[in-house]
């Protein structure tokens, strides 16, 4: 079996401002710095939604069922389905961070 192809980022997403945002995120050194940037960039609801989607991805990757994920996160089945689709067919962002978080024990 060959190695899984790493998909490219959708061309409509990539531009100078998005590049700047990605570079800004990569400068963060602590969780506290992450919180401060997110608080300035996003609403509380947006931060919670992103955090929930990441947890849904983690649970899906660990083999949990939709019912278990709904119970644990409160996410809708539509959100779980969307995350599953990106986990399987997306740009591998979820897979990258989940692998790195598991290696660091976080």
What does this structure look like?
- With 106 residues, the protein is mainly α.
- It folds into 2 domains: 11-41, no CATH class; 44-106, TrpR-like (Trp Operon Repressor, Chain A).
- 69% of the residues lie in helices and 0% in strands.
- The protein is built from 6 helices and no strands.
- The chain has helices at residues 16-26, 31-41, 44-61, 66-73, 77-89, 93-104.
- α3 packs across α5 (77-89).
Number of domains: 2
Shape category: globular
> What Rg do the Cα atoms give?
15 Å
Q: List the helices and strands in order.
A: HHHHHH
CATH level 3 topology of the largest domain: Trp Operon Repressor, Chain A
Count of discrete alpha- or pi-helical segments spanning 4 or more residues = 6
Helix content: 55-70%
Distance between the termini: 30 Å
The CATH class of the largest domain: Mainly Alpha
CATH H-tier superfamily of the largest domain: TrpR-like
Question: Which structural class fits the helix and strand makeup?
Answer: mainly alpha
> Beta fraction of the residues?
under 5%
Q: What's this model, at a glance?
A:
This protein is mostly helical. Helix content is 69%, strand content 0%.
List keywords for this structure.
mainly alpha, 0% strand
């Amino acid at each position: 079996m060959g190695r899984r192809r790493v998909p490219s980022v959708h061309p409509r997403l990539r531009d100078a401002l998005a590049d700047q945002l990605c570079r800004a995120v990569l400068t963060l050194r602590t969780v506290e710095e992450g919180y401060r940037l997110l608080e300035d960039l996003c609403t509380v609801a947006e931060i919670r939604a992103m955090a929930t989607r990441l947890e849904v991805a983690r649970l899906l990757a660990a083999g949990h069922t939709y019912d278990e994920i709904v119970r644990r996160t409160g996410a809708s089945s539509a959100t779980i389905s969307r995350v599953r689709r990106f986990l399987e067919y997306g740009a591998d962002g979820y897979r990258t961070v989940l692998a790195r978080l598991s290696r660091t024990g976080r």
